[in-house]
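FAQ: What does the model actually see?

It sees only this:
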Amino acid sequence: MVQRLFSGSLDVLQKNLDLRLIRHQVLTSNVANAETPGYVAKDIRFEEALQQAVGFTAQDTLRRTNPRHLPQPQGLREVQGTLVVSPSDDVGRDRNSVSVDREMAELATNTLQYNASAEILSRMFDQLKRTISDGGR
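And it is asked to produce this:
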């Protein structure tokens, strides 16, 4: 019921928060291993898959009236992050590819995006709460 009120936005925000949390864990692992010989920095890529899935959420209301019609694309639940090796031009003598400055910048960006999604989600629930309490008057 709540998902229908927000036209799928709730699912998108929830998935975004989940994936940003996973990315945060990967990035902090990189920072923690900045001095580990041979450690290769990693990252999680999910933005493209999430955008592609979101582009189709508006079409969820379409019906397949003929078996030859194209099927619905994957939903948000199937969107997962892809673990990738972070590109680095500054591999040290110990073969460690972590750039602490780059990782900290990525962490800051990821944190800002996480907080923005959490704020939007909070405002959606505040709006719902106000609507419910004003409706009882």
